[in-house]
Write a structure and sequence with these properties.
Layout lengths: L2 H4 L9 E7 L13 E4 L4 E5 L3 E3 L4 H6 L2 E3 L25 E3 L2 E6 L2 E8 L18 E5 L3 H16 L12 E5 L5 H11 L4 E5 L2 E5 L2 E6 L2 E5 L13 E4 L2
């Protein structure tokens, strides 16, 4: 599915969202290959299908245009139509308005469905056999990695950079397919203090919360050493 295909919906087509409580404690049951996920400390989200691709700058306006049948008790801001996706620090990219959004918070799971959609949600089936053998191949050898570190230090020393984060490319081949819900389940179990996320094949876990906004409150939880050590605790501020 491409942005062009999603944008082919006839002009004036109105999206309608319906939210209902569902009996499940695992939102990953509603995740599919085209969806995204965010498993945080107080909310868990999993999506499926595609209603539209939107520019991040337009996401708010598009979401406000969706008619929403919201039941009583579904007060959390993540419950209902959302735009989800992973964006580059350098800008660009798009967000997805999913066809279905499962949200669990406060011990309750809510499922929102949006119509019409261009790609229906098709939850990914679990697999019985997990990978047992892996072949790991590094993208850089030790000499190449040493050269990267040396070059980075030189740029910092010459004040061309204030900070550099180096990453190693590693290719992993397994004897069984990697299935997204299973990968996320393992990350959630092995990294319980982290935020676990997925977006169309981009998967990971991080202890950092770069920024979260709820109404006028903005929360940041950085841990990359860019602030004094005594300022690494959770910080919140209010917008004027």
């Amino acid at each position: 599915m491409t942005a062009t295909a999603a944008a082919s919906r006839p002009a004036g087509t109105r999206m309608v969202a319906t939210t209902r409580r569902v009996r499940t404690d695992d939102v990953l049951e509603h995740l599919d290959a085209s969806g995204g996920a965010f498993l945080g400390d107080d909310v868990q989200i999993a999506t499926g299908g595609v209603c539209a691709f939107v520019d991040p700058a337009d996401a708010g306006a598009v979401l406000r245009s969706i008619e929403h049948d919201r039941p009583r008790g579904a007060a959390h801001p993540a419950i209902g139509p959302i735009a989800i996706g992973a964006l580059q620090f350098s800008g660009g990219g798009d967000l997805v308005i999913p066809a279905s959004i499962a949200v669990r918070t406060g011990g309750v799971t809510w499922l929102t469905t949006i119509d019409p959609c261009t790609v229906a949600a098709r939850p990914t089936a679990r697999i019985e056999r997990h990978a047992r053998r892996f072949v790991v191949e590094a993208g850089q050898d030790l000499d190449q990695w040493d050269a990267m570190v040396t070059a980075g230090l030189a740029l910092v020393g010459g004040r061309s950079l204030r900070k550099v984060v180096l990453a190693r490319e590693v290719t992993v081949e397994a004897d069984a397919p990697f299935v997204l819900p299973s990968v996320l389940e393992r990350l959630r179990a092995s990294q319980p203090a982290c935020f676990v996320y997925a977006d169309r094949g981009f998967v990971g876990a991080t202890p950092e919360l770069l920024v979260r906004r709820r109404g006028t409150e903005v929360t940041s939880r950085p841990m990359a050493g860019t602030v004094p050590r005594d300022a690494l605790d959770r910080k919140s501020t209010r917008l004027n």
